[in-house]
Design brief:
Layout lengths: L2 H7 L1 H16 L8 E2 L3 E2 L2 E4 L5 E3 L4 E6 L6 H4 L9 E2 L12 E10 L9 E6 L5 E7 L5 E6 L17 E6 L5 E9 L12 E4 H36 L2 H20 L2 H6 L17 H17 L1 H4 L1 H27 L4 H28 L3 H25 L7 H45 L4 H16 L3 H29 L4 H26 L5 E3 H16 L5 E6 L5 E3 H21 L19 E10 L2 E8 L14 H12 L3 E6 L3 E7 L28
Parallel strand pairs: 1-4, 3-7, 15-17
Antiparallel strand pairs: 2-3, 4-13, 5-6, 5-7, 7-12, 8-11, 8-13, 9-10, 9-12, 14-16, 17-18, 18-20, 19-20
Helix pairs in contact: 2-11, 2-12, 4-5, 4-12, 5-7, 7-9, 7-10, 9-10, 10-11, 11-12, 14-15, 15-16, 15-17, 16-17, 17-18
Keywords: ATP-binding, Kinase, Membrane, Nucleotide-binding, Phosphoprotein, Transferase, Transmembrane, Transmembrane helix
InterPro entries: 7TMR_DISM_rcpt_extracell_dom1 (IPR011623), 7TMR_DISM_rcpt_extracell_dom2 (IPR011622), HATPase_C_sf (IPR036890), HATPase_dom (IPR003594), Sig_transdc_His_kin_sub2_dim/P (IPR011495)
EC number: 2.7.13.3
Length: 702
């Protein structure tokens, strides 16, 4: 068994194993402590563990600056701090395009605090313009600019474009106050006070872990993208183009969403306006369009499920106006996450719901390539579901499971494309083999010009009907018949040169047996049904051929009484034809030996002197073949026969599991009774009872 066949025969097991692996991995929560809310005392955050990622949302105090005129000197006056209110007391979200002052108070009480003086304060990207006031290690106030719209080269601390980062110095046991002033310039995207604080060691550790995992994930997608492009270059399969587009957009979206794109090209592209990297979020639309086009092309859904094919085509093209609208909204709203998600999220949900709804109809088609799509959609849906549940049911929210689902899906789809490529190679090999075989056949038939033209005509006719199997089988029967004709002609030529009458008769008998099978194959390839033979026409041609072989046409009358609709399968017709050949030959050679004026082997000279009857009829569940003549009958001393023909008839009757009897009354009548288990007179299958043997036409017994 080849590797491809082994995989094909066991792909259900691989799919089950992969789903089980994904489920087990999905049940694991990424290691690392969760964000912590330390004990609050009057809004002060007490830092007690250097390994925590402190969430400060409940320790932030906010002072609205509607006029935008308050300065740090104003805020620092003893009379103004009373204007700060805890952020959690604001019943409505903060407004966009308005300035807000904020205050955070923390106390560094971690064990060995002297070793953990440097901390990193992280502001969400909702703050597009931001200025933070903190004390340095000498106790002097300093101001740092930050914000999502501020270029990295203007930030004092920017190891990554992820968020707005401020490095703080927190002396042990002292309360440290941090002021900040900022606003959000994005429409419908107010600033958020979800601010985090962690030691620099933990920050760099988490950043390194995120960079490594993102690099592995993006590197995997890039590797699969390169593989698909290489395979497309050699195979020119459109499915690889769509899937490569999907992978490319996944890479771009993953790099943009992790701010790796800004980190890599921030100094060269959009250096003065880093917010413009938000345009790359539109890659999700191109990715989904490529994804849908891949499913349509790979599964050949337009043929398997035409209605779904039209729906998926419409859904694919729907992404184009949404992409343009998304770009317009991004520009007009200053890259508001909220407004952008109102466009992209419904399209993402519609795409996934449509793909999930397709699974059952696709499964019912029993298309093997469809099973790969079913498995791929299933695993990425499970990953997305677990990631969604992690936001609600078991935080913290993580896209680890979604990435795991994407990896599994990419692997499954890549296996599906490899499977398709293997099938195409096999189809090409079959086509090449058929082409080589056709060339060999044409070379072999080069000397038979007439036959070749006839074959070409038949080949053209059968090609129009798209019946390649029937053409091949007819060609086999035709060649067998030709070969048998060649053998028959050789026997005839050999018999001409023989002087010994016994040898000559043996040659003629052999020739008649070969011709019998040749006629059968001729009927098979000339008829409309390649599995059965019309017995009436077959026996008629057989008697004509025997009359010609022995030169008795016009001297012996052959009467055929066979139902016109009677057709037998080839396994029954071959031995039956040989039996009929032997019985008719015996009648020709011996039935009229007592007549006066014989000519060569006992054949009468007078025209119409003899009659040979060939009959077939159904008796109960069995069929009866009878060959009779009006000759002198069989002599007593030769009953049972001792020659080769007699032995051949006996063996053939035994092969048919039939019974043989002879009626020697006014000529010799030989009857063969047999049961047909496959084809009856109407061309239908029949099954006779095993213990039932109906009576035959005449009394006497076998």
């Amino acid at each position: 068994m080849t590797t491809a066949n082994y995989f094909t025969d066991n792909y259900h097991r691989y799919r089950a194993f992969l789903l089980l692996l994904l489920f087990v991995a999905g049940c694991q929560t990424p290691s690392g402590p969760n964000p912590q809310d330390a004990n609050a005392r009057g809004g002060i955050c007490e830092l007690e563990n250097f390994s925590w990622n402190y969430r400060l949302v409940n320790h932030v105090e906010i002072l609205p600056d509607t006029a935008g005129r308050l300065t740090f000197a104003d805020v620092g006056q003893p009379s103004l701090p009373t204007g700060f209110r805890p952020y959690r007391d604001f019943t409505e979200p903060l407004a966009t395009h308005l300035w807000y002052w904020g205050k955070i108070q923390v106390v560094n009480q971690v064990p060995q605090a002297a070793e953990h003086l440097e901390w990193v304060l992280y502001f969400a990207t909702d703050w597009t313009s931001l200025e933070v006031f903190s004390r340095d290690h000498k106790g002097n106030w300093r101001a740092e600019r930050a914000g999502a719209f501020l270029p990295s080269n203007q930030k004092r601390f920017s190891p990554t474009a992820w968020g707005s980062l401020i490095r703080l110095n927190l002396p042990p046991g002292e309360m440290t106050t941090v002021y900040f002033r900022g606003k959000s310039e994005r429409k419908a995207n107010p600033p958020s006070c979800h601010i985090y604080l962690q030691t620099t060691d933990r920050f760099y550790g988490r950043m390194g872990y995120a960079r490594v995992t993102n690099a592995v994930f993006i590197g995997f997608l890039g590797m699969m993208l390169l593989y698909n492009l290489i395979v497309y270059f050699f195979g020119r399969n459109r499915s690889y183009v769509y899937y490569s587009g999907y992978l490319l957009m996944m890479v771009i979206y993953a790099i943009q969403s992790n701010d790796d794109l800004t980190d890599l090209f921030g100094s060269y592209l959009f250096a003065a306006a880093p917010q413009n990297y938000g345009y790359f979020k539109s890659a999700i639309f191109v990715g989904l369009m490529s994804y849908l086009a891949f499913i349509r092309s790979f599964t050949n859904i337009n043929v398997l499920l035409p209605g779904w094919g039209r729906y998926f085509r419409l859904l694919t093209w729907l992404g184009l106006p949404l992409l343009i609208f998304h770009l317009w909204v991004s520009y007009n709203s200053n890259f508001s996450f909220v407004l952008e998600d109102r466009i992209s999220t419904p399209y993402i949900i519609l795409t996934f719901v449509s793909c999930i709804a397709l699974l059952y109809p696709l499964y019912r088609t029993e298309d093997r390539k469809g099973y790969f799509v079913i498995a791929g959609i299933a695993v990425i849906s499970i990953g997305a579901l677990i990631s969604a549940l992690s936001r609600v049911a078991f935080p913290p929210f993580s896209i680890f499971y979604l990435k795991l689902g994407v990896v599994a899906e990419v692997l499954i789809f890549s296996l599906g494309l490899a499977y398709e490529q293997k099938k195409q190679i096999q189809a090409k090999e079959r086509a090449d083999f058929a082409l080589r075989e056709s060339v060999l056949l044409r070379e072999k038939d080069a000397l038979e010009a007439d036959r070749l033209r006839e074959d070409n005509r038949k080949n053209a006719l059968l090609a129009e009907r798209n019946q390649e199997n029937e053409l091949l089988l007819k060609e086999i029967h035709h060649r067998v018949k030709n070969n048998l004709e060649v053998v028959s002609s050789l026997l005839e030529l050999q018999s001409v040169g023989l002087t010994d009458e016994g040898a000559r008769n043996a040659m003629l008998a052999g020739r008649s047996r070969v011709s019998t099978m040749g006629i059968l194959h001729q009927k098979l390839y000339q008829g409309d049904n390649l599995g059965t033979v019309g017995m009436r026409e077959y026996l008629t041609d057989l008697t004509k051929n025997l009359g010609h072989t022995f030169g008795v046409n016009g001297q012996i009358t052959f009467r055929i009484d066979v139902p016109e609709e009677l057709r037998l399968d080839i396994d029954t017709a071959v031995p039956l034809g040989l039996i009929a050949n032997e019985l008719i030959t015996n009648s020709i050679k011996y039935a009229f030996s007592s007549a006066a004026a014989l000519d060569g082997g006992g054949v009468p000279v007078a025209l119409g002197a003899g009659t040979v009857d060939v009959e077939m009829s159904r008796v109960g569940e069995r069929w009866l073949l009878a060959v009779g003549d009006n000759g002198s009958g069989k002599m007593v001393e030769t009953v049972g026969g001792t020659g080769f023909g007699t032995r051949l008839v006996g063996m053939l009757v035994q092969q048919l599991e039939g019974e043989l009897r002879e009626v020697n009354d006014g000529g010799l009548r030989t009857e063969v009774s047999f049961r047909v288990g496959r084809v009856d007179a109407s061309g239908n299958e029949t099954h006779a009872p095993e213990n039932q043997t109906p009576p035959l036409g005449k009394p006497g017994g076998f």
